[in-house]
Amino acid sequence: MSSGAMYAAHFGLKQRPFTLLPDPDFLFWSPEHRRAYSVLEIGILSRAPITLVTGEIGSGKTTLLRQLMNRMEEDLSVGLISNFAGAREDLMRWVLNAFGLQVPEDHPDDVHRYQVFVDFLVQEYASGRRVILIIDEAQNLSVDALEELRMLTNVNSGQDEVFQLILVGQAELRDRILRPKLKQVAQRIAASFHLGPMRSEEMQDYVRHRLQSAGGSGDEFLDGAMVLIHKNTDGIPRLVNQLCDLSLMYAWTDDEEVVSAETVEAVLQDKVFFGAQLLGGAQKEQQA
């Protein structure tokens, strides 16, 4: 039995409540997450050419996307690109792959890739379906790649939006799109939202929610522990998960029934929570 499973049993939990994998079953609807999700839905329903959602690393963007894709209507054809890596010239390969499309081997160039994609859009439109391309971790896209994507939205004409684009990424994606060179991309963004960190009370509700979702009471962390966790994570969900997971493990090894401030302090002093060092480094950069 793994240490995670053993500490879960110690606290009467069915499973570890603070794993790092995006899991819609543990989705916590903070006010910020509700607004971000609403923007994604509004972008789809209003047929926005481009919808943009940005947020800090670990703020829960990918979990929101999983929830969105689970609720997509049947009249939508959805393609997902995660962690794009490559030059602008590689983009159409990724786009076609997202929809399971292939280019004849005797015509492997970008012109034919583009034509295959347009033919797919026309076919879906004729079948009464809209096509949505979602790009997660879109901060990896270069300026040229973003402009290439903007060109794909040119297939929309008249009153019908055949193709929609959803871009999700870190804060630098928003900054990049605001550059003068990408003015035309920015003009096509009809819905956007930046997902920030959780405030202290929201984070405490988040921790309780995940504990209860895993079969706990939600009171496994004392108030003093909660204060320390928010102070050392800035309310960023991924970092909160890491510190809470380690704190539960420490409490289990000490045979404690709850996580106290002293438990969290022990984790921090042992420097096993690497996120605190990353957060401290980022804060120093901002001050410089």
Automatic annotation (TrEMBL):
<dbReference type="InterPro" id="IPR003593">
    <property type="entry name" value="AAA+_ATPase"/>
</dbReference>
<feature type="domain" description="AAA+ ATPase">
    <location>
        <begin position="47"/>
        <end position="192"/>
    </location>
</feature>
<dbReference type="InterPro" id="IPR052026">
    <property type="entry name" value="ExeA_AAA_ATPase_DNA-bind"/>
</dbReference>
<dbReference type="Pfam" id="PF13401">
    <property type="entry name" value="AAA_22"/>
</dbReference>
<dbReference type="GO" id="GO:0016887">
    <property type="term" value="F:ATP hydrolysis activity"/>
</dbReference>
<dbReference type="InterPro" id="IPR027417">
    <property type="entry name" value="P-loop_NTPase"/>
</dbReference>
<dbReference type="InterPro" id="IPR049945">
    <property type="entry name" value="AAA_22"/>
</dbReference>
<protein>
    <recommendedName>
        <fullName>AAA+ ATPase domain-containing protein</fullName>
    </recommendedName>
</protein>
